[in-house]
Amino acid sequence: MTDRASQRVVKRSLVIAGHRTSVSLEDAFWRRLSRIAAERGVSVNALAAIIDASRGEANLSSALRIYVLEASCAARGDPIAAAPQ
To answer: Which residues, other chains included, contact 4 with Cβ-Cβ below 8 Å and sequence gap of 6+?
Structure first.
C-alpha cells in the first residue's frame, strides 16, 4: 500500500522548448519520472519535452503518468504495456 505522501498531488514547474509550464503529479509519479530520466541520462525537463512532443491531445500531466506507468510495466517485462520510446 502507498503512503499518503506518495498520493499527494504537487504542482511542479518544467521548462519545455524554452517555455515554462507546470504539471500536477503525485509524488510517486514524480519520483519515478525523475528516476527514469536519470537512468536515460537526461534531465526531467528533457524527458518531459520528449513526452510532450508525442502526447497529441492528451493533457501533459496525464501523458507523464501514462509514460511512467508504461515504462514501469516494460521494465518488469509486462507484455501488455507498450514500451515507451
So the answer is: none
